[in-house]
Design the sequence.
């Protein structure tokens, strides 16, 4: 930064031109300011010409000495006992004629270079604060519209992370769910020893299964559990599963892990796959192609949220066009994007479209040519992507 060398040069010139004036005398009176004062650059003491010289006031057994010192160290010391006791006290200060007495003297020696360093650091800190404020102001101008399913936007990790990063976040629920086939799920899992594992590709699938089964102790013991994404992993772990595949990022990558694991089993048995009535084919197709037996069961039905269109129109009416739109699932694209396209606003103008993962991108890119995909389905990856825009 250019201002740093300028400050250093200024400090050197200023230090050379400035002369500290100190009282230089002895007195028997504590408050006597003396009649004589000398500038440090003309004192006979050679070292008083140094930058950083200080004025001092010293008391030794009632005799007060005032002078200037190149290096002043404060003292408060008594030696001996009774009538042989000798006490020495010295105070140091660094402003003109500040050593009139102990009451007016500073208790800390402040060198000029310390002041300069403080000034430089202050400028750096102020500049950093200004830059952060400017960055935050720029982000606050960026309206981010999320289509994400969650039980509470106030507690949602993605919403909180984006708000903490300074973005103006607006979230809309894109869909609603209804659990179904609970009896069938319960029947399958009651015979969990007949299967090798269970696959969850959404948090909602875990919730649907947990509604059907109350005791998961044997199920979690008998079945290997594969999941996609941290939210699904958390929900499955809450049931007692030791999960795998959370870091796969998408169904295709998860299928590769499952196939590798399944081929190593001494006694491979079918896998259970609770899923939505609307699902992608990539996972089941990949497993079937590798001859991995899969029992699919629709555990919940998905439909557009009853207030989706109303909420989208209210957003545009109150907040104009968003700078960024983020979709968190293929179904959120299928339900929300047609409403955006039908709106009277120019939703394509200067709007960036972000997808949480490859499966969502695959659906979104059919209507939006330029789609940005988060590197991972977590809040940090989404925030990093938006900061790069």
Sequence:
């Amino acid at each position: 930064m250019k201002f740093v060398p300028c400050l250093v040069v200024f400090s050197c010139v200023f230090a050379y031109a400035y002369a500290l004036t100190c009282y230089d005398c002895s007195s028997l009176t504590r408050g006597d300011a003396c009649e004589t004062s000398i500038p440090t650059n003309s004192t006979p003491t050679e070292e008083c010409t140094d930058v950083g010289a200080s004025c001092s006031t010293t008391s030794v057994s009632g005799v007060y000495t005032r002078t200037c010192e190149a290096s002043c160290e404060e003292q408060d010391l008594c030696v001996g006992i009774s009538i042989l006791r000798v006490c020495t006290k010295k105070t140091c200060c660094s402003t003109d004629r500040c050593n009139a007495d102990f009451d007016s003297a500073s208790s800390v020696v402040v060198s000029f270079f310390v002041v300069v360093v403080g000034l430089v650091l202050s400028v750096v800190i102020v500049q950093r604060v200004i830059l952060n404020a400017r960055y935050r102001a720029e982000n606050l101008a960026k309206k981010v519209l999320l289509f994400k399913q969650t039980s509470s936007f106030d507690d949602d990790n993605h919403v909180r992370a984006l708000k903490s990063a300074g973005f103006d976040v607006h979230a809309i629920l894109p869909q609603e769910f209804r659990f179904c086939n609970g009896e069938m799920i319960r029947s399958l899992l009651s015979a969990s020893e007949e299967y090798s594992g269970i696959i969850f590709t959404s948090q909602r699938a875990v919730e649907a299964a947990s509604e059907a089964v109350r005791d998961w102790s044997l199920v979690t013991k008998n079945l290997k559990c594969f999941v996609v994404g941290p939210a699904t992993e958390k929900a499955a772990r809450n049931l007692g599963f030791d999960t795998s595949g959370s870091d796969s990022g998408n169904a295709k990558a998860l299928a590769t892990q499952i196939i590798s694991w399944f081929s190593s089993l001494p006694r491979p048995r079918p896998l259970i796959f609770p899923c939505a009535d609307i699902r992608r084919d990539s996972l089941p197709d990949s497993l079937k192609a590798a001859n991995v037996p899969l029992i699919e069961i629709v555990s919940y039905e998905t439909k557009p949220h009853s207030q989706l269109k109303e909420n989208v129109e209210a957003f545009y009416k109150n907040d104009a066009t968003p700078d960024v739109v983020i979709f968190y699932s293929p179904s959120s694209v299928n339900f929300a994007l047609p409403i955006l396209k039908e709106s009277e606003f120019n939703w394509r103008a200067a709007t960036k479209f972000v997808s949480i993962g490859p499966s969502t991108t695959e659906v979104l890119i059919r209507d939006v040519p330029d789609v940005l995909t988060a590197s991972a389905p977590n809040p940090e990856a989404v925030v990093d992507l938006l900061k790069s825009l």
